[in-house]
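Progress report, Aim 2. The chain analyzed during this reporting quarter is listed below.
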Amino acid sequence: MNLPIRYFSILAILLLSGLFINSVSNKQNNINTAESYIIKGLKVPQNLNFAGEKAPIHLPDIYERFDKELHIITYWQSNTLLQLKRTEKYFPIIEPILKQYGIPDDFKYLAVAESGLQNVVSPSDARGFWQLLKGTAIENGLEVNENVDERYDVEKSTHAACKYLLKSKEKFGSWTLAAASYNAGNTGIGRRVEEQQVTNYYDLLVVDETARYIPRIIVFKEIFSNPAKYGFQLESDDFYQPIKFKIVEVENEIPDLIQFAIDNKINYKLLRIYNPWLRENNLKNKSNKKYLIKIPV
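Predicted structure tokens for the chain:
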């Protein structure tokens, strides 16, 4: 066989082999996709409640609202998984404060729905774990300025959120409506209750965000209480753990927080991570109050 013929013969064999391998590969990929990644429709539990107040899942519009949130939260796996990991770090801080105010434990899931247990900032400039607006934060005892913003302090902001929720519960007589008012405001919920002449959250016509709000909170409660049921498998060491720290009481100005961190045998990064309410590289303390600064150990 001369050289050109041999060359073309080898080339033809290679091309045919490539087509065969590609065909087999595609067939295997299709089989693997179908067999290993199955998206299942989820069943909405019928016994869902918030703070002991039952959700009327038997109503078609309510069922669909819960069904939507159940599928969104379950199948946004990475986000929900990370939120689950944060619970052991932050729920032990939030739970005793809720108990102190006589607020049902279910409200810890409101913080999950608001921020995913992170110090985030919303488009409306609500901040922190509890997404408090500046005016609401100040009304409920927090200091908020360019130097100190206690909305970023998980303990203090939880106290402020509890004070707001107690006022809402007193106004509406329902924990579910109190939670809804956290999203839409006491004035907004109060106006709709009066206009529509109903006293139940599930009977109210509200904007989409508020309509989704309570179902989201309850679905977080359901999934976080039964993670394995929804496919989330975590070992005990997968959860983020609280950091041990000591408290340094400060009643004066700190002109240089970098040096303050060094003096306390940590770096400035750690100081700011564990005290995110410090918003500048100094503490002016114009009000001459006592601040509690966490120093990780």
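The chain has two domains: 49-238, 245-296. DSSP finds eleven helices and six strands in the chain. These observations will guide the mutagenesis work planned for the next reporting period.
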